[in-house]
Amino acid sequence: MNKYLYNGKELLDDLNLNLYDYGQRMYDPTIGRFNRIDRFSEKYYGLSPYQYGANNPISNIDINGDSIWVVIHPTVDNQIQTQHYYWGSDQQGNYAFRDQSGNAYQGNNQFIGDVANGLNDLMNGGSAGYALVTGLAGASDNVQIIPGNANSSRGNAEFASNSSLGGSAVRWDPNFNGVQGNQRPSFVALGHELAHSRDRLNSTLDLNSWFTYQDQNGATQSVPRAEISATHTENQIRAENGLSLRQSYTYDPSGSPTGTRIIFNGTRQSRYYNSSGNSNPNFRPIRRRQTPFTY
């Protein structure tokens, strides 16, 4: 008899319990509830601590730990299915995208492969990338990575805060390697966007305007302060991977830095972070008496 039924979880029918084993909690299909409270229930005051999938089991799935997710929609037997895979490790510490049962993804979806390569590049590049990825993978909120590329800095930062359940979302194009003057491997761009998600989950995502500029179409674009934090993380990742630092947030068509610089001209030192890795309130540039962060 197959006991792995709803969501692939084991049905415990001993003593006629008829509960599904979700690891941390047991799910009672008769009432559509768990038999103990959600350990993250304080994050969702509007939901019952015994609810399953935010009372929307078609769109949401409860797992043993929230983390970095990708969602694909393959066609199986001429029907479109929705499959969720999270970034996690096995007992040997091997990271991969895994299903709700912990099995590593074995399919050929190009985007999952690209994201896995990007996350591995970040983790293997050095301590900043490793801490970024593993910290988000073990966070108490979801971070979903979807294909795409935001058309403005504010769009990227605001998209990071887009979640009905308090998590975060990241748009990433694995084939986009930057613009003139700011070329970068796509995994560095992924790290930049994940930095927005980390700020979102830490309640430090600052969407107040940093500066404005005119784009190539003559439209005024506002760059939020959140980009100061994200470019700081980006330069940490660049430095530990032996890549040139990002000097400015914006560049003109010839590739020359424009707008507000993020490092002091001709140096590897941050204009906004001190040697301890801290920024001033409202991201004011560091003072002369402060020792700047060196990448």
TrEMBL record:
Gene3D superfamilies: RHS repeat-associated core
Cited InterPro entries: Effector_pro_NleD-like, Rhs_assc_core
Region (Disordered): 272-295
Biased composition (Basic residues): 285-295
Pfam families: Peptidase_M91
Compositionally biased spans, kind Polar residues: 272-282
Coiled coil: none
Name of the protein in question: RHS repeat-associated core domain-containing protein
Species this protein is from: Arthrospiribacter ruber
